Structures are given as structure tokens and as C-alpha cells.
């Protein structure tokens, strides 16, 4: 997201929502699911009112569930990146000392 | 077989180019590359078409990109149309004086390697900041390369996922079947329309027939409700407005109930429209992408483009260019018009005012499609024509009582027992039919 700066900012409540991770995709998935759910219900039951209710419900439900899932994986990645950053910094500080060799000798496992 | 002929054809074209430009060292080397890769081509032709195709298109690409040398402040400043020999000299002059890239450095490298290096180098030459104008020598006559930049919505459509999916599918279909492009386009249209639109149209007719049958049931209910409302007004002193309102809501409720019972909401018929229009747009956009080598950066764009330029039929040999005789564009309009007229003839009820307006509007649109399709590449035109022709066949087929019973469309009051004969008798009353008959008898 950082490398493409040519897009237009979309300001909402004083914040550029295009910069929020998962924002766009959760809405896109919500819209898709609501169209599929609503139209599917209409085609199977011929009840427009019920179909619109179900469309709305699937929109809200899928938007939120996608958001939660996406943010969870995103924050997990962020934590891993932070740990990695810390380790790299540590490695840089120990460069050329006997401790570096000790670290290098450690097995490569995800603890 | 056809493919290999195409390739030979292109190869000859590129040979012409090298023949004209063989004086400078660059092009002497190019000739050697060409010879070497013709060797490859001959070897490959039996084994794999695609490989030989790629190598040759690459060659053509090379011969094309080799030559363009733009010069704003070069020693020689020429027009695009000056003889190629002259341009060659300017190109060599430019090479030594401006870009300063030593071209004859990697002569002894293996073929592929030096080819890629060559391509890289020529790109440098083209993109040099001093040289603002790309000039091509000798490729002007041998090959036309479209330069189209889309913006806005058109760009979004051309680069969208469904369009790219259709584009890839078309290319894969063409390369696996080995059919010429015109046959690929017609066959794809027939397959897509018969697997997607035909069943949905059958479904639409099924829904319409069911609704028509419900109307009969509804008229009894309406009569009963009217009687009830009359009784309420006369006996129980119910105000007339209130009674009418109650009656209206009750009628609507009953109608909804019936529709839900039979599961045939009339809006379900619009699914045909909602699939057919996006489909039409998507396939048209995919074909246009293939014609103009869009979106930029596709590796197989040039190969498909070259295939399309010779993948035509009869009088349209080049599917990328427009149809010179305007036969395909006119047939697009005529097919659409015929479709509308057939639908008009098949109507069982009198037209309302709105329907008449719509009819004239559709007639106008189908005529207006002719000049529009005269400007689009003939492969798009071909798609439109074949799609409309399929539409006519489909509409006629869906009137047949046998097909209708086979598809499980319920029998209705207004359904015709022999629709084609009735259509013909109705056609006889039309002015254009009489006009044609009179002019025939006069001859």
C-alpha cells in the first residue's frame, strides 16, 4: 500500500480510509455477498422483501466477519514483523562479537 | 497448416525488411539472427506451433524495435516515409554519435542471450531522454502496430478481471483447438449463448407463462373482492375511499400470495438481461483488447495480434482492421432489426403507447449500430453479428410448441399452436413485405 501513492485519498471523519488495511476488501466482500445472498433468495423464493432483508443481513455479517478475520491476520503479521525487526537489530549490534556466532549456531525454529 | 503459412508470410515480410536494410552492421547481424531462427522455426514447426510462433513474433518484435531511433538533435533528421536505406544510415550515425552504446559487443554470445541483450539495448535507444519521437523505418509498410491508450472507465473495463478472464479463455480456446480466429469467435459465441443465455431465456418464458396462467386465477379473486367492497359500501356504510384503499391492498396481497405460491415473480425474468448485457460488454472488451494489444505488458499480446491479422475469412482477411465492404457491420444492424421485427410479429396483445415508443427506439438503435460497427475492428463486428444471428434463431426456436413442452413451459391461453405460419400471415400485412413483392413482380 505504501508504494502506490498516486491514488486519490478518500477522507472520512478526518481520516484517509484508503490507508486503513482491510477496509476496502471487507466492503467489497460485503457487497458481493449481499448481492449474491439477496438475489439468490429472490430467485428461490420470489419474496422481494425477504430478499432485501437477507441481502442487508449478509452485507453486515460478511463485512464484519471479513474485517475481523483480515485484521486478525494483519496484526499477527505485524507482530511477526516487529519481532523480526528486533532480531535484526540485535544481530547488528552483536556483529563481530562471539555472541553473534552463538546466535548463528542456534537452530532455525519458530519459537 | 494455416498457422505455418502465416508464419512464413511474416517471415517473408521481415526478410524484405532486412533486405532493404542490410547495409549497416546491426542489420547484418539481424540477418544472421533471422537465418538462425528460421532454422529453429523449421525444426520446431512439426513439434510445437506455439514455440515457433513465439520465436517468430519475437523476431518481428526485434526487427521492429531495433529500427526505431528517435532523433531530436541527431545529425540526420528524417521523416517516417523516407527510404529505409537512408534511415539506416541515420540510425547508424545516431548509434555512434549519441547513444554511444556499442552494439557489436556481444556477437559471440549464445543466441538467446544476445537476443535479449539486443532487445534491452534497443529499448535504451528508444527511451533516451533526448529522443522524443520514435521513428520506425521499414516496419511502416510491413506492420501496423496499434498505439492506443485508454483512460478512465474504458481503462477500468479493459483491465478488469472478467475481461482478462474472457481474453485468456479466448486465447486458450484458439490455441488448443487450432481454429482460425473467425471460427473461434463464432464458435465461442454459439457456445456461450447456448449454455448461458438459452437456458435463462427458457426460464424467462417459463416465468412469463406461469404469470399468464395466474392472471386467470387472479381475475376470479378480483371479482370476489369487488363484490365484497360493494357490499361494504352499500350495506355497512363504509366510506368509498376507505373501501377502495382496502380493496387495492387486498388485491396486491392476494397477487403476492399467488406469486409466492407459484414462485414466479415477474422480476425473475430480468436475469436474462442482467447476464446478457455484461456478457456482451465483457466479450467485446476482450476482443478489443486483443485487437489493440491491451492491457499493456502482456507477453502474448503481439502473437495474438498477429494471429488476428490473418485469422479472417472470405473478404475480411484481417480481423483487426475494419471491414472494407461493410458487409459485417450492415449484417449486425439487419440481424438486430430482424430480431426486433420478429418479436413484434410474435406479439399476441396490442401494443400500449409505451411499448410502441420502445419499439421505435429499438429500431432506431439497431440502425444506429451500423455506422458504429463500421468503425470497430471486424472481429468485434463478427462477434456482434453472430450474437444477433444466434438471438434470431433462439427467439424463433422458443416459439415452437414442441420446444416449449420439452422445456416444461406450461401451456397458456395465448400460446400459438403453429407460430411460424401465423407469423407469416401477419408478415403479409406489413408494408415492407408488400413492397418487396410488388417490386419483384414488376421485374
Automatic annotation (TrEMBL), chain A:
One Gene Ontology cellular component term attached to this UniProt record is: mitochondrial inner membrane
Q: What is its main location?
A: mitochondrion
Mitochondrion as a keyword? yes
Localized where? Mitochondrion inner membrane
Q: Where are the transmembrane segments?
A: 21-44, 50-69
Q: Which UniProt keywords apply?
A: Membrane, Mitochondrion, Mitochondrion inner membrane, Transmembrane, Transmembrane helix
Q: Which domain of life is it from?
A: Eukaryota
> Does the record carry Mitochondrion as a key word?
yes
**GO process annotations (BP):** mitochondrial respiratory chain complex IV assembly
Cite the Pfam families for this sequence. Answer: Cox20
Q: Which family does it belong to?
A: Belongs to the COX20 family.
Name listed for the protein in its UniProt record: Cytochrome c oxidase assembly protein COX20, mitochondrial
Give the originating organism.
Neodiprion lecontei
Q: Which gene produces this protein?
A: LOC107222829
Automatic annotation (TrEMBL), chain B:
A Pfam family annotated for this UniProt entry: 60KD_IMP
* Biological process annotations from GO: mitochondrial respiratory chain complex IV assembly; protein insertion into mitochondrial inner membrane from matrix
The Gene Ontology CC terms held by the record are: mitochondrial inner membrane
In terms of InterPro entries, this protein maps to:
YidC/ALB3/OXA1/COX18, YidC/Oxa/ALB_C
- Top-rank lineage group of the source organism: Eukaryota
Where does the Membrane insertase YidC/Oxa/ALB C-terminal domain start and stop, copy by copy? 181-399
UniProt keyword annotation of Lipid biosynthesis present: no
What's its membrane topology? Multi-pass membrane protein
GO terms of molecular function? membrane insertase activity
List the subcellular locations.
Membrane
Q: Which UniProt keywords apply?
A: Membrane, Transmembrane, Transmembrane helix
| TM spans (from-to) | 358-376
For the keyword rRNA processing, the answer is no
Can you tell me which family this protein belongs to?
Belongs to the OXA1/ALB3/YidC family.
Protein name, entry field: Cytochrome c oxidase assembly protein COX18, mitochondrial
Q: Please report the organism this UniProt entry assigns to the protein.
A: Neodiprion lecontei
Amino acid at each position: 500500500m505504501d508504494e502506490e501513492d498516486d491514488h486519490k485519498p478518500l477522507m472520512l471523519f478526518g481520516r484517509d480510509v484508503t490507508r486503513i488495511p482491510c477496509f476496502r476488501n471487507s466492503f467489497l466482500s460485503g457487497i458481493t455477498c449481499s448481492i449474491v445472498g439477496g438475489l439468490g433468495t429472490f430467485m428461490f423464493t420470489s419474496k422481494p422483501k425477504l430478499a432485501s432483508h437477507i441481502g442487508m443481513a449478509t452485507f453486515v455479517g460478511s463485512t464484519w466477519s471479513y474485517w475481523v478475520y483480515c485484521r486478525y491476520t494483519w496484526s499477527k503479521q505485524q507482530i511477526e514483523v516487529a519481532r523480526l525487526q528486533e532480531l535484526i537489530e540485535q544481530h547488528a549490534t552483536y556483529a563481530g562479537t562471539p555472541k553473534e556466532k552463538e546466535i548463528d549456531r542456534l537452530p532455525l525454529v519458530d519459537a | 497448416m494455416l498457422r505455418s503459412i502465416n508464419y512464413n508470410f511474416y517471415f517473408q515480410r521481415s526478410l524484405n525488411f532486412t533486405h532493404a536494410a542490410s547495409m549497416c552492421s546491426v542489420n547484418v547481424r539481424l540477418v544472421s539472427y533471422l537465418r538462425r531462427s528460421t532454422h529453429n522455426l523449421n525444426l520446431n514447426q512439426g513439434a510445437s506451433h506455439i514455440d515457433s510462433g513465439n520465436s517468430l513474433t519475437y523476431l518481428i518484435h526485434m526487427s521492429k524495435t531495433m529500427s526505431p531511433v528517435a532523433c531530436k538533435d541527431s545529425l540526420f533528421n528524417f521523416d517516417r516515409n523516407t527510404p529505409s536505406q537512408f534511415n539506416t544510415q541515420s540510425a547508424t550515425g545516431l548509434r555512434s554519435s549519441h547513444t554511444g552504446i556499442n552494439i557489436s559487443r556481444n556477437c559471440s554470445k549464445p543466441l538467446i542471450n544476445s537476443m535479449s541483450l539486443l532487445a534491452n539495448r534497443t529499448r535504451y535507444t528508444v527511451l533516451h531522454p533526448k529522443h522524443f519521437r520514435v521513428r520506425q523505418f521499414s516496419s511502416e509498410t510491413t506492420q501496423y502496430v496499434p498505439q492506443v491508450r485508454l483512460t478512465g472507465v474504458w481503462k477500468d473495463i479493459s483491465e478488469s478481471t472478467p475481461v482478462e478472464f474472457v481474453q485468456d479463455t479466448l486465447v486458450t480456446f484458439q490455441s488448443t483447438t487450432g481454429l482460425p480466429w473467425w471460427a473461434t469467435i463464432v464458435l465461442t459465441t454459439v457456445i456461450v449463448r447456448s449454455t448461458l443465455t438459452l437456458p435463462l431465456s427458457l426460464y424467462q418464458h417459463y416465468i412469463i407463462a406461469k404469470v399468464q396462467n395466474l392472471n386467470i386465477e387472479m381475475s376470479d379473486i378480483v371479482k370476489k373482492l369487488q363484490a365484497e367492497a360493494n357490499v361494504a359500501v352499500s350495506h355497512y356504510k363504509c366510506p368509498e375511499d376507505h373501501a377502495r384503499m382496502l380493496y387495492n391492498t387486498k388485491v396486491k396481497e392476494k397477487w403476492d400470495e399467488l406469486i409466492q405460491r407459484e414462485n414466479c415473480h415477474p422480476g425473475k425474468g430480468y436475469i436474462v438481461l442482467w447476464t446478457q448485457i455484461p456478457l456482451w460488454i465483457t466479450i467485446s472488451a476482450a476482443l478489443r483488447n486483443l485487437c489493440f494489444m491491451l492491457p499493456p505488458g502482456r507477453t502474448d499480446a503481439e502473437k495474438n495480434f498477429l494471429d488476428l491479422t490473418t485469422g479472417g475469412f472470405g473478404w475480411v482477411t484481417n480481423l483487426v482492421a475494419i471491414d472494407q465492404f461493410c458487409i459485417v457491420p450492415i449484417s449486425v444492424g439487419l440481424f438486430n432489426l430482424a430480431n426486433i421485427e420478429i418479436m413484434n410479429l410474435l406479439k399476441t396483445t396490442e401494443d400500449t403507447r409505451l411499448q410502441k415508443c420502445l419499439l421505435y427506439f429499438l429500431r432506431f438503435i439497431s440502425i444506429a449500430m451500423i455506422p458504429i460497427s463500421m468503425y470497430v475492428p471486424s472481429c468485434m463486428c463478427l462477434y456482434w453479428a453472430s450474437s444477433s444471428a444466434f438471438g434470431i434463431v433462439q427467439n424463433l426456436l422458443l416459439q415452437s410448441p414442441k420446444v416449449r413442452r420439452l422445456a416444461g413451459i406450461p401451456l397458456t391461453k395465448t400460446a400459438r399452436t403453429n407460430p411460424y405460419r401465423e407469423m407469416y400471415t401477419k408478415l403479409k400485412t406489413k408494408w415492407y413485405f408488400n413492397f418487396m413483392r410488388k417490386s419483384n413482380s414488376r421485374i
